[in-house]
Design brief:
392 residues, 18 helices
Length: 392
């Protein structure tokens, strides 16, 4: 629960960005390319943060790195409210992204290592469900706060987690597995080079290839679609406030997506959840991009949120289970970091395509194909970990 709230604040900050950029597009007259760059710069920070935090967490502990990443993105978010120009805001969002990207893989590793094998998958998916709660909070802030008080207040609200970090300092402990591993390796610490080589050694190479493909395709499609969601609604002819209202409705569908994934992941396994939910995400993406009526657009958006975020929960549960304790956080962090490259490319690509008047429907077919590639990687290269103990 404690790690879950940190996850929620992370999601709230990411969600706020998508709504703020829709407002700034109107107030600062941003071009589609600038919108794409603004969305991507946060993802660049997340890519760097995921890699650095994952590596540091295997050396200094999950708890310490979790607290520092929470502080970094909270402070940078608060400072974003004082930005007076596009360039300054982009710099601050890079720093915030560093903290955001670092917090996620460390939190999932901490929870994965602290729960019994029979409940581990469900627990991590439920941790991921706090992401939906964060997006719902962001949508509420966008609907009730941004139109009336401005985007600066939204970023100030994003700074509140700094106080939660102070609470977490005493509320959580490091995982027992890391503590035991740290005691065993205290005399001869494991080098970064050795950890990286182990990730690509024969016992783990197949899993690493599969995870890097999976993370890239899921992150590419998610950030390409969801960071642009409010702006896409505006492009489809809805007012800013109306767009925020519809995105809030779509966001609410994320919660049942997580809860059903949490149930199925222990009943049918990790691969089942990932393959089924990603396939239905791909179908929903094609449907949303080519929806021709208001009702179809909302229905497709609800399905997109439901299945995409359920798949995210399965991915976060699955990834830590494929590596031993000594390299687990490094493995999760580097997979997430590689995935964030897709998150950097996608919003920029959408910005370029929108700027060239490419139809939204055509853009969403790109996401359909990308997600199918991730499904094939899991189907061919993935191994089932349901009910298995973590590797020491």
């Amino acid at each position: 629960m404690s790690a879950g709230f940190s996850w929620m604040f992370d999601a709230m900050d990411v969600g706020i960005i998508s709504f703020v950029v829709a407002d700034l597009t109107l107030k600062w007259s941003l071009t589609p390319l600038q919108v794409g760059f603004f969305n991507s710069i946060n993802l660049v920070g997340m890519a760097v943060g995921a890699a650095v935090a994952g590596i540091m967490a295997d050396k200094f502990g999950r708890k310490a790195v979790l607290l520092w990443t929470l502080l970094i993105f909270s402070i940078a978010s608060g400072l974003s409210a004082a930005a007076t120009g596009f360039a300054v805001l982009c710099v601050l969002r890079f720093i915030a992204g560093f903290g955001l990207g670092g917090e996620l893989p460390v939190a999932s590793t901490l929870v994965s290592e602290s729960v019994a094998s029979k409940d581990r998958g469900r627990a991590v998916v439920l941790l991921e469900s706090f992401w939906a709660a964060g997006w719902i909070v962001a949508a509420l802030i966008a609907y009730f706060v941004i139109p009336k008080y401005g985007w600066q207040i939204a970023f100030l609200i994003g700074a509140l987690p700094v106080f939660y970090a102070l609470y977490l300092r005493k509320a959580i402990d490091d995982s027992p597995r890391f503590t035991n591993q740290a005691l065993q390796t205290k005399v001869q610490p494991i080098s970064l080079r050795h950890r990286f080589r182990t990730l690509w050694a024969k016992p783990h190479r197949r899993s690493t290839i599969m995870l890097w493909i999976l993370w890239f395709t899921v992150v590419f499609s998610y950030y390409g679609m969801f960071l642009w969601l409010p702006s896409v609604m505006v492009l489809k002819g809805f007012s800013l406030v109306r767009s925020f209202q519809y995105v809030l409705i779509m966001t609410l569908a994320q919660l049942p997506g997580y809860f059903t994934a949490a149930y199925f992941i222990e009943k049918f396994g990790r691969k089942f959840v990932l393959i089924v939910y990603l396939l239905l995400t791909a179908v929903s993406a094609a449907w949303f991009g080519n929806a021709s009526t208001e009702g179809m657009l909302i229905a497709a958006g609800i399905c997109l949120s439901f299945f995409n975020l359920g798949a995210w929960g399965g991915m976060y549960a699955y990834t830590p289970e494929l590596y031993p304790t000594s390299i687990r956080s490094t493995g999760v962090g580097l997979a997430a970091s590689f995935g964030r490259i897709g998150g950097v490319i996608a919003p920029l690509l959408v910005g370029i395509l929108v700027g060239r008047d490419v139809a939204i429907g055509s853009i969403f077919w790109i996401f359909f194909v990308t997600i199918i590639v991730g499904v094939i990687a899991v189907l061919v290269l993935g191994t089932e970990t349901k009910g298995k103990e973590l590797i020491d």
